[in-house]
Amino acid sequence: MTFERARSEKQKNERIEQIKVATLKEYENKGYHNISLSSIAKELNFTRANLYRYISSKEDIFLKIIIDEVNLWIDDLEKRTMTVSVNAIHTFSKEWVNSLLSNKRHLELLSLLSTVIEQNATLDNLITFKNQLANSNKRLVNIIKIKFPCLSEEDIFKFLTYYVAMATGLNPICHPTKKQIKAMHSSDYPTVIPEFKDMILNFLKDTLSRFLNQK
Known about the structure:
75% of the residues lie in helices and 0% in strands. By secondary structure, it is mainly α.
């Protein structure tokens, strides 16, 4: 694409969307750590100077992408759980996992969020991101509250905290890179790779049951 400077807020938003699309293409082809602003600019046929008119860093682009991906997942989860009966722990957990498996990218990126992406993002953009994530979290809390009305918001926040820690920690362990797998097979390190679907399903059921049994 030929670079033309955005003259209006609408054009600026369109340019941001183009940058996100190009960045996701780079992400799917190379993985997060192999992407640079130079490679994104090349994908767009921009110069780095032109790219800097719209974004400050690679991390700032990914903060925008993560919000999109999280909201897509929540949209999907809401649809899947709409007909689930109240307090149906097994069915709700199963639909949650099915939604995760259909929206894997948001979980991949959340696994990098606190240790990599947030560490290198600009403060202003990180504050904006946190506020957007808080709004997304309210939607998630509401989904759980509808299906488990006896749970307090405090219980739901605890559940979500445990879930995020478990899912983002478990995901990279269950999906090692080719290099990691080769290292496992070439060393004395155990080579059994956990099954993400089964482990996260059991975690969701067990954790929800524990909170409900406290009532």
